[in-house]
Design a protein that fits this description.
The chain is an alpha/beta fold and 219 residues long. It is built from eight helices and seven strands; from the N terminus they run αααβαβαβαβαβαββ.
Length: 219
């Protein structure tokens, strides 16, 4: 037995994938297509995606938000976990990156669930709030520019219903958050982690999944 999280070497990681991962063919195809991308490291791992899909189903989510779409693997994963009438508001600014996603969304039969908004995410979220959508969402995933994470978090917290869940990616930042900050991204993540630790508006868990995944449940 261990009192701390287990480290994964390549062999144990492959065992995890071989004995847990269940991907739709479109997920696997999109993941393989993204593997050759210059910024492929921006994509979440498949086991993190599967964990998030389970959370979506456990919370009974019907309306979800994603901030930071990249080539669309996480959006595809969340959309597959939503019911047929569920909807994902997907926020990104790159037509180039998100253009890759669309054929795979179509292949998986979930394109009708995904509302892709190509605009600064804060503008999209503010528009939702102005339209009276506060408290109308169930799940949010934040995986975009780190210096805006706190602003995204605050908007998502307003848009989620009580009991809704926010998942925040990269909160361990390859270990940099445990060292003196040398750049704005690291400083922003350190500040957000410290804030969340004491935020009584949420129930909290920071998990060593992927590059660090924080789960914040709105009270």
């Amino acid at each position: 037995m261990s009192r701390r999280s287990l480290s994964l070497d390549d062999g144990l990681y492959q065992y995890l994938v071989d004995h847990s991962l269940r991907e739709h063919p479109a997920q696997q195809a999109l993941r393989e297509a993204t593997a050759t991308h210059a910024h492929s490291s921006m994509q979440i791992s498949p086991e993190q995606g599967q964990f998030m899909a389970l959370l979506v189903k456990l919370t009974g989510a019907r309306r979800a938000i994603e901030i930071g779409v990249f080539t669309g693997y996480s959006a595809l994963t969340v959309a597959l976990a939503l019911p047929n009438d569920g909807r994902l508001l997907a926020c990104d600014i790159s037509d180039e990156y998100t253009r890759t996603a669309k054929p795979y969304w179509q292949q998986a039969g979930v394109a009708h669930k995904i509302d892709l908004q190509l605009a600064p995410a804060l503008s999209t979220l503010d528009a939702q709030l102005a339209a009276g959508a506060a408290g109308q969402y169930d799940f949010a995933f934040i995986d975009a520019d780190k210096t805006s994470y706190d602003a995204y978090y605050e908007c998502c917290l307003r848009l989620l219903r009580p009991g809704g869940l926010i998942a925040i990616d990269n909160t361990l930042w390859s270990g940099s958050v445990a060292l003196p900050a040398k750049d704005a991204d690291t400083a922003a993540l350190q500040q957000l982690n410290a804030k969340l630790h004491h935020d009584e508006r949420v129930d909290l868990s920071l998990l060593p999944v992927g590059d660090g995944l924080t789960l914040a449940r709105k009270r």
